[in-house]
Amino acid sequence: MGFTTGATASNFVGLAAARQEVLAQAGWDVAVTGLIGARPLRVFAGADRHAFVDLALRYLGLGLPVAVAADAQGEVAGGCPGRGDGCRSRSGHRVPPGRQLHSGSSDPLTEAAMIAHDRGAWVHVDGAFGLWAATSPRHRHLVAGLKTCDSWATDAHKTLDVPYDCGVAIVSRPEAVRAVFGVHTSYLQTTEHGPGDPFDKVPEFSRRARGVPVWAAPRSLGRSGVIALIDRLVQAAHTFAARLSGIPGVEVVNDVVFTQVCVSFGSDERTRNITARLLADGTTWMSGSHWAGRDVLRIAVSNWSTDAADVENSLQAIQRALAAEDAA
Ligand SMILES: Cc1ncc(COP(=O)(O)O)c(C=O)c1O
Is the CB–ligand 1 distance for residue 265 below 6 Å? Predict the structure, then answer.
């Protein structure tokens, strides 16, 4: 496990380890020989993945992934990266999102890992905010199969709410990550094998001690406190969804399963206007976004201090924005 600036960098770490390992299986040590001349690698990722997965792949010289069709909630349908040619590849890795950033839904990880491992591929999970579902007995079914994957990216500065910047990269095969990021030089007294030092796990050498807040938050909250935090955030999302869907002309577009609620107020123009009025009101901050072919107000409940009163105030602010738009 290594600490990074955020999920983008953690995706980079997991995918770098994947590239190292998958090519090593083909007899190619990319850390020594480089990428030029290596057999082509194919990466499969959900069509509705976060754009920062592509950025991590770009850093690695792997280009755009093969997009795997997603269903209405952004989940990879059936869990297979193209059951034909793509699945036969022995030189691939695969990136299911830990949770889709608009719907909060997750790919079928068990099935994805089974299919990928059968073909010598690696499964990396972008779990920037959603990996934290695994801590809660009530919500861990949402990420069933996590353990069967090979590497995971998450952000402690998202759902756990420690200060920015605090990503976490977890890789099941320490030797692979060490082959990529391990540093050997005369004044660093390190061993050649095993999990390695902190600088053997991430791209940076000099950096602040991000592990300290990641240790401190669960240490002060305790297991039950972390679980209560996750459950509270999800409960707030359900409250938003229930109350908003009761207002005529308001549609909750996603199946709310985690902390994301996407709302349409009818036409795209009306949704954009109401979002702008809401942000100008200043009571709450929610982002305008575009998902599933329409403009939406995207609610992502992620601050530890959000309580029932905040949810109520935010709902009233949305209703004010709605009324103002209707009166305009
Ligand atoms: C699913 C997902 N992946 C990656 C990222 C990028 O994370 P970061 O900004 O910490 O690099 C985000 C950010 O919102 C995200 O939601």
Answer: no
Write down the pTM of the prediction: 0.90
CA of 78 to the centre of ligand 1 (A): 24
Atom of ligand 1 nearest to the CA of 97: 1
CB of 130 shorter than 6 A to ligand 1: no
- Report CA(273)–ligand 1 centroid distance (Å): 26
d(CA 3, CA 148): 22
Category of 89 on φ-ψ map: left (φ > 0), alpha (ψ -120 to 50) or beta: beta
| Ordered domains of the chain (ranges, CATH) | 2-208 (3.40.640.10), 226-327 (3.90.1150.10)
Structure tokens at 26: 């083909």
Kindly tell me if the per-residue pLDDT of 88 is higher than 50: no
The average pLDDT across 194-221 equals: 91
Rounded to whole angstroms, the Cα distance separating 52 from 290 reads 16
SS3 for 156-170, per residue? CCCCCCCCCCCEEEE
Residues 244-303: pLDDT tens digits? 999 999 999 999 999 999 999 999 999 999 999 999 999 999 999 999 899 999 999 999
What whole-number distance in Å separates Cα of residue 73 and Cα of residue 290? 13
Is the distance from the beta carbon of residue 103 to the nearest atom of ligand 1 less than 6 Å?
no
The model's pLDDT over 122-131, given as tens digits with 9 standing for 90+, comes to: 999 999 999 9
Residue 27 neighbours by CB distance under 10 Å: 7
| Closest residue CA from atom 5 of ligand 1 | 7
